[in-house]
Structure formats: C-alpha cells, structure tokens
C-alpha cells in the first residue's frame, strides 16, 4: 500500500496549489496507487533509473529513500546504478552511489 503523499502541499501548497494537488493526488494518489499494474517496489526501481539517467539528483535522493521503504535492497540499488552507468554515464553513477551510500548505510 502506497503511503499518502503530502510533499506537494507541504512544499508548494501555498505557492503552486494546482501543481501540489496534481503531485499528491494524481501522481502519487492515482498513478503510484495502481498496484495491480506495477508494485510500489517496481515503480521505485523505474523512477530511480529515470531520475539517475536524467541527472536529477535531489529528486533521486528522495526517491531512493522511498525505494528503500518500498523494499528495494541495497544490493538491488547498487545493481541498478552499476547497470545504468553504461547507459546513463559514469559520472552520474558516481553521484548516485554517493546518495545510495547515504541512504542505505
């Protein structure tokens, strides 16, 4: 079961209320909640892979924490980063490993 997300409203509710509502209610409330299609664990792996590939490290850090909560193990995260190093870039992998060490240790 996906935890109810409030990050949009917590961080942007007063400044960008429509974006905050879309983040919390649609992205997390509907898309992430479709567990009959993809599990939260699988969604976390996909999301981390996408964020690392794009070099979006502040968001990657947050989603690695969510991935850990969703059951992605340290060894799986290390395997994901190692695999993507060859597709997304070696420097991005180094940066992602820094985040993974922080989250998993």
UniProtKB/TrEMBL annotation:
Location of the Carboxymuconolactone decarboxylase-like domain: 17-101
Gene3D superfamilies, per the entry: AhpD-like
One Pfam family named in its UniProt record: CMD
Full protein name: Carboxymuconolactone decarboxylase family protein
Organism: Agrilactobacillus yilanensis
UniProt lineage: Bacteria, Bacillati, Bacillota, Bacilli, Lactobacillales
